[in-house]
Fold this protein.
Amino acid sequence: MPARNRIPGSSALPISAVSFAVAALASLAPASFAQPYPAKPVRIVVPFGAGGPSDLLARAVGQKLAEAWGQQVLIDNRGGANGMVGAEVAARSAPDGYTLLLGTNGTHGMNSSLFAKVPYDPVRDFAPIVRIAAQHFLLVAHPSLPVRSVRELIALARARPGEIVWACGGAPTQLGAELFRKEANVNVIVVPYKGNAPAVTATMSGEASLVLGGAAQSAPLVRAGRLRALGIAGPRRSAVLPEVPTVSESGVPGFEAGAWYGFLAPAATPPQIVERVNGEVTRILKLPDIQARLRADAFEVPGDTPDAFAAAIRAEVAKWPPIVKAAGIPVQ
């Protein structure tokens, strides 16, 4: 055989045979080496402690993902620093789809306004996947406060500036109160408590007059006469208390305050994995048992695209700096 048909240094294997072998191996590579996602357990980082809304939502959807994928879905609670500890853990993880974050409008919006040093960028360091739930707060008052609507509240607050105490628990409810104060042009005293439960308790006892809180948690207290519902802080009325008007239709146009929750991945996660998770979670959110569970807690289901979720995060980041500045809230 002529030398030009042989590999240098070999006296037996022709180039044509080598080419055939390489082609054969290449044809087998996808089946042998490229495993479909997910090929191992997936971790969902929850940046808050067990038992809260983020944790419960992650576990409900995570269980369905495990059933669909035939892989374990592990919930990793990493609470601390208003969710920044867990969010940073997720942001610094490998962008391979095996670490997801259950983020909120706190971790991906409010924190950027409240803290001078956030250890991640809520826009650049993440690939948004899908929002899974949103809950608009319910504004309630102690029954002794002589108001039965948002309009009456505004009139009273303007007649008695600096006298009405508004309890809040956590950044979302505090910033919601400050947003109302700015948009309604009223002077109320916003008093932070260590959590929403103590804030609601303070309002029931009469220590405070107003509080924003989850509609599902406050509705039983409203029905029992221990609190009076004034308005839902969302674009539409709540199925939990459909007779209660929105704050927007009651004198403060466009007012919204609440919390949303969604899945994100580290930046540079392959788009096909983002789309895969988005499609699977969107399917899960339509399941009757998941729908019933979310409705029971007064959650709505945005179920949006990655691009729509990204736009929502950018809007959230831009929304709060002027509110924090106007309220004089010290940046930590």
Notes: The CA atoms of residues 217 and 297 lie 8 Å apart. The chain has two domains: 42-134+258-327, 136-250. The chain is about 40% helix and 20% strand.
